[in-house]
């Protein structure tokens, strides 16, 4: 076979052409290369030498290339990293970061992924939830009416600032947990990684907008209680993927959806209303994945309910001596719902916060029942959930 | 029984990775094998001849010296194996594309950049090539040497790269560059494509060689050679090491293509006929 490069230099595209021709031939095939570039012979022979192809220079200046074995040898025992559309039950560690379905050269690293079992990390809903999450991203700069004018009584503003301060620390925990989990999961389960990554990005936005709302009127941040931080620390301490996702997404974020609904309804200004509404939509998605993931797992693992129960009880015991919800936050919620300091208004506020707690409890019991807990046990476990909400 | 011991020159940190990997592979294949590292080729060659090591992974220049030393002492010496990539190299002497130098002849009175004093490919061979064209280094033209990694026999690419840079900067009129490095420098942008013109190319010559002498145990030497030759590029356990060492297969050694270098060494007075270092400005 002959290949004439005409005036094309080896280093300005000639190599590609030669490689393309060689790629289509079996080892041992011969290609006679001709061309006018003065460096062609020098470069071609040097390249062939390093690539394992033989060369002979002919008297007329042409170079005869004999295709070597290295390309074939390199891929001799290659395997596919599964199929793009199918999720493997236990992807081997050496598939590593390769794309699902990629052709793997043998001999790469053998990373050990802690979470490499489909039954533990997967949920059939993950691809759809990921697509939905990717489509539902919003821009904090434009989605919130930061320029809308409003003035609030000082007490109400202080209540909002306190609630925002509390929300920020909860969002920080909610950011760290999925970010940490995703590094432990085999990348084969890329939709789950993607979902956790978007979830972490959601939380980063929540931290951002809640902080901006807190500082919007030029004051300082509110307080952070030791009990609140202890509750979050106990959440971060859970190393088990299933249990962490249960405590954070199903119970914590599930409870937060009600809190954010409450805040949106009682928001005294358009900025607070927008940030809580936007965050709530994201949180609903986080809860949906948590529930779907656990449903998938409980179907194959009969011990799961017992382990979930154990996790709630352990965390309850850990937090028994802490104060629970920051009293400042509790008072701020009440005042917000009351809207003023008159006794009837405060009474209304009290009832609203009680209703909120009842709604949170109902929501948790519903999720627990969906996972398979009988009603009485669901009620009992819901009552053990942290008083910090998250 | 002590292990079959090979010497290698530590011209780059990767040498440790390569020979540690091969060492494990040899041991797993049943050959007790170890290696020692040298900071320069001269000492490695002296140890080979003194029988302190069983094999030396030699540069072509180290082969020349080892052969001369061995023959002076009546010791048999042999090129056991070589990399496929050690066969049939060539060095280009190039000028800038816009240079007024139209032929090798016109290098007379000009300045030619080379690699380190002990580089076969970037100094000794191309200078001897010019000698054959009737141009004597230092007399008919000025040599501007880039002494990087002296003692490593040109394994360090730094001198050649500096020579290429000097050419582009207009500090010299021509530069001597190994074929593969010329291609590499175009890729790196040191010698942008089209920036140089080819004046002449040396004949083809061979590069490194696994050198053994008659003092090593013949069975183990044979086994060492067989095992090297059996390394397959299809084997994922050795392929990364072969990639690092820059080969796709080990081939039988051959010595006929060191003749040009033998002549160049003699003409330059680098070693004498008995293998003594006689080069004036050579301090490995
Ligand atoms: Fe959030
Ligand atoms: Fe969340």
Helical residues, percent of chain A: 55-70%
CATH topology name of the largest domain in chain A: Ribonucleotide Reductase, subunit A
Overall geometry of chain B comes to globular
Average pLDDT taken over every residue of chain B: 97
Low-confidence stretches of chain A are none
What is the CATH homology-level superfamily of the largest domain in chain A? Ribonucleotide Reductase, subunit A
Bound molecules: fe (ii) ion
CATH superfamily of the largest domain in chain B: Periplasmic binding protein-like II
Number of strands of chain A: 6
**Count of discrete domains of chain A:** 3
CATH class of the largest domain in chain A: Mainly Alpha
Q: How much strand content do the residues of chain A show?
A: 5-15%
CATH architecture of the largest domain in chain A: Orthogonal Bundle
Number of strands of chain B: 11
Kindly describe this structure.
- Chain A is mainly α and about 400 residues long.
- Chain A is built from 15 helices and six strands.
- In chain A, β3 (about 55) and β4 (about 65) form a beta hairpin.
- Chain B has two domains: about 5-85 and about 205-270, Periplasmic binding protein-like II (D-Maltodextrin-Binding Protein, domain 2); about 90-200, 3-Layer(aba) Sandwich (D-Maltodextrin-Binding Protein, domain 2), CATH 3.40.190.10.
- Helix content of chain B is about 35%, strand content about 20%.
- Chain B contains nine helices and eleven strands.
- Chain B has helices spanning about 15-30, 40-50, 60-75, 120-130, 160-170, 180-190, 220-230, 240-245, 260-270; strands at about 5-10, 35-40, 55-60, 75-85, 90-95, 110-115, 140-145, 175-180, 195-200, 210-215, 250.
- Chain B has a six-stranded mixed β-sheet with strand order 2-1-3-10-4-11, sandwiched between helices. In chain B, strands 7-6-8-5-9 form a five-stranded mixed β-sheet, sandwiched between helices.
- In chain B, β1, α1 and β2 form a beta-alpha-beta unit.
- The two termini of chain B are about 35 Å apart.
- The interface of A and B includes residues 50, 52 and 68 of A.
- The complex binds fe (ii) ion (2 copies).
- The site of one fe (ii) ion has 5 residues of chain A, from α11.
């Amino acid at each position: 076979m002959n290949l004439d490069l005409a005036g094309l230099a080896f280093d300005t595209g000639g190599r590609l052409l030669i490689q393309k021709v060689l790629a289509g031939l079996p080892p041992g095939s011969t290609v006679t290369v001709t061309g006018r570039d003065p460096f062609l012979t020098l470069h071609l022979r040097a390249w062939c030498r390093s690539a394992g192809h033989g060369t002979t220079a002919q008297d007329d200046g042409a170079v005869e290339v004999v295709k070597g074995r290295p390309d074939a040898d390199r891929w001799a025992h290659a395997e596919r990293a599964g199929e793009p559309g199918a999720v493997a039950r236990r992807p081997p560690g050496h598939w590593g970061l390769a794309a699902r379905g990629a052709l793997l050269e043998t001999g790469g690293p053998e990373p050990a992924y802690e979470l490499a079992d489909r039954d533990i990390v997967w949920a059939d809903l993950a691809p759809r939830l990921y697509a939905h999450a990717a489509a539902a991203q919003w821009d904090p700069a434009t989605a919130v009416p930061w320029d809308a004018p409003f003035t609030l009584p000082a007490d109400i503003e202080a209540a909002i600032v306190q609630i925002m301060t509390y929300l920020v620390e909860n969002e920080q925990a909610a950011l760290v947990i999925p970010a940490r989990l995703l590094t432990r999961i085999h990348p084969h389960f890329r939709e789950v990684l993607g979902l956790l990554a978007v979830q972490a990005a959601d939380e980063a936005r929540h931290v951002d907008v809640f902080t901006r709302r807190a500082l919007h009127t030029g004051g300082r941040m509110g307080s952070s209680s030791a009990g609140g931080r202890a509750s979050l620390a106990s959440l971060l301490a859970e190393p088990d993927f299933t249990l962490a996702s249960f405590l954070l997404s199903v119970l914590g974020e599930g409870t937060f959806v009600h809190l954010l609904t409450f805040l949106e309804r009682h928001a005294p200004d358009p900025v607070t209303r927008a940030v809580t509404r936007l965050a709530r939509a994201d949180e609903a998605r986080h809860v949906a994945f948590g529930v779907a993931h656990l449903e998938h797992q409980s179907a194959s693992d009969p011990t799961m309910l017992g382990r979930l129960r154990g996790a709630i009880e352990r965390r309850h015991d850990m937090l028994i001596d802490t104060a629970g919800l920051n009293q400042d936050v509790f008072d701020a919620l009440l005042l917000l719902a009351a809207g003023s300091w008159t006794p009837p208004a405060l009474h209304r506020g009290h009832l609203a916060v009680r209703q909120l707690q009842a709604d949170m409890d109902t929501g948790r019991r519903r999720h627990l029942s969906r996972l398979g807990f009988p009603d009485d046990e669901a009620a009992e476990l819901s009552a053990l959930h942290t008083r910090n909400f998250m | 029984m002590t292990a079959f011991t090979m010497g290698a020159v530590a011209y780059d940190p990767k040498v440790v990775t390569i020979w540690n990997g091969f060492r494990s592979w040899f041991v797993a294949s049943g050959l007790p094998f170890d290696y020692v590292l040298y900071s320069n080729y001269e000492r490695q060659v002296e140890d080979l001849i003194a029988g302190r090591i069983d094999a030396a992974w030699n540069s072509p220049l180290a082969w020349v010296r080892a052969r001369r030393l061995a023959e002076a002492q009546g010791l048999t010496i042999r090129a056991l194996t070589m990399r496929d990539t050690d066969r049939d190299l060539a060095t280009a002497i190039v000028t800038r594309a816009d240079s007024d130098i139209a032929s090798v002849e016109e290098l007379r009175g000009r300045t030619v950049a080379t690699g380190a004093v002990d580089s076969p490919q970037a100094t000794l061979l191309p200078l001897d090539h010019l000698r054959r064209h009737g141009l004597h280094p230092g007399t008919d033209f000025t040599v501007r040497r880039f002494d990087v990694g002296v003692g490593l026999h040109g394994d360090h690419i730094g001198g050649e790269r500096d020579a290429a840079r000097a050419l582009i900067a207009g500090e010299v009129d021509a530069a001597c560059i190994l074929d593969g490095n010329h291609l590499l420098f175009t890729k790196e942008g040191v010698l942008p494509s089209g920036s140089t013109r080819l004046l002449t190319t040396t004949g083809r010559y061979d590069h490194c060689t696994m050198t053994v002498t008659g003092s090593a145990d013949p069975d183990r030497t044979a086994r060492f050679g067989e095992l090297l030759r059996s390394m397959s590029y299809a084997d994922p356990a050795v392929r990364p090491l072969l990639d690092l060492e820059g080969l796709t297969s080990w081939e039988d050694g051959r010595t006929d293509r060191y003749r040009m270098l033998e002549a160049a060494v003699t003409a330059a007075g680098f070693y004498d006929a008995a293998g003594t270092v006689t080069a004036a400005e050579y301090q490995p």
